[in-house]
Write a structure and sequence with these properties.
- With 288 residues, the protein is α/β, with parallel strands linked by helices.
- It has one domain: 3-Layer(aba) Sandwich (Rossmann fold).
- Helix content is 36%, strand content 23%.
- A 7-stranded mixed beta sheet has the order 3-2-1-4-5-7-6, sandwiched between helices. Strands 8-9 form a two-stranded antiparallel sheet.
- The longest helix is centred in the N-terminal third of the chain and has 13 residues.
- The chain starts with 7 loop residues before the first helix and ends with a helix.
- This is Malonyl-[acyl-carrier protein] O-methyltransferase.
- Its EC number is 2.1.1.197.
- It is an enzyme of class 2 (transferase).
Length: 288
């Protein structure tokens, strides 16, 4: 399983810098948030308190408030300027809260939330089991965690094209949905459901893709990435390599593997000092 280390401060700085223009370029992220919201059409929930992790400019957060009009909905993100944009767009409700915090250290009392959501955020986390542990801690028994992330085939064309240049990671590595499901089970969540779909964006040239990634703050933030500017000859080699993917319509594809997941907290849960979790068989059956 991939365990990639990110520079957290660098990620925060990148998204702060991208905040003013994020929604203009984040077409894919907006669509993914919409699709995650639509999946809740098939789940019966009446939450009183909802938290959206990695809320950014508040796209999914606003979906949640529109869906659960009586709930207190909180958007949480590490980047203050993204939250500033969220507040500026906050037209749907007056009492929504926007919190600047780290999703690896959630500022909520244990078993105080009814629903935790997250879209296009978890792939920026170095310690995903830690995040799942925190989500487990703050969710009430019988509550739901639903999220999206990106899978290993994301930007596979760009990754392969950069591999023709050097051995450094130029594209972030992404965790397989089966490994994510295993983490959820290990934490104690019941009935994790994982599925995925491929979405392709198209560009006239690869630099358009690179510009979009930078505009939304989603360029490479791995700790072991190459430092310094790439030479003109190396960049031209990458661009030439990407040309092999140009399709019959004359455009270059950029593939995104979108992972959708949701998992329940059992009606009865018991956390042991050792970190192990006891889950009753009866509570597991109840969700099936």
């Amino acid at each position: 399983m991939i365990k990639q280390q990110f520079n957290k401060q660098e990620i925060c700085n990148a998204f702060n810098q991208a905040a003013n223009h994020y929604q203009d370029a984040a077409i894919l992220q907006l669509e993914i948030a919409k699709r995650l919201d639509e999946r809740l059409d098939f789940v019966h929930l009446s939450p009183e308190k909802v938290v959206d992790l990695g809320s950014g400019t508040g796209v999914l957060t606003r979906h949640m408030k529109s869906r659960f009009t009586k709930a207190q909905v909180i958007g949480l993100d590490l980047a203050e300027k993204m939250l500033k944009q969220a507040r500026a767009q906050d037209k749907l409700f007056k009492k929504n809260n926007w919190l600047a915090a780290d999703i690896e250290q959630l500022p909520f009392v244990s078993e105080s939330l009814d629903l935790v959501t997250s879209s296009s955020c978890l792939h920026w986390v170095s310690d995903l089991p830690k995040v799942f542990s925190e989500v487990w801690r703050v969710l009430k028994p019988g509550s739901l965690f639903t999220f999206t992330s990106f899978g290993p085939d994301t930007l596979k064309e760009l990754k392969a094209s950069f591999s023709a240049v050097d051995h450094y990671p130029h594209v972030n590595e992404f965790i397989d949905m089966h490994d994510i499901g295993d983490m959820l089970l290990k934490q104690g969540f019941s009935d994790p459901v994982m599925d995925m779909e491929y979405i392709q964006m198209t560009y006239s040239d690869v630099m358009g893709l690179m510009k979009d990634l930078k505009t939304i703050g989603a360029n490479n933030h791995a700790q072991h990435k190459r430092r310094g500017l790439m030479s003109r000859s190396a960049l031209e080699l990458m661009k030439k390599s990407y040309e092999q993917y140009r399709n019959s319509e004359g455009v270059l594809p950029a593939t995104f593997e979108v992972i959708y997941g949701h998992a329940w907290v059992p009606e009865q849960k018991q956390q042991l000092n050792s970190g192990e979790v006891l889950v009753s068989l009866e509570s597991l059956r109840k969700k099936k």
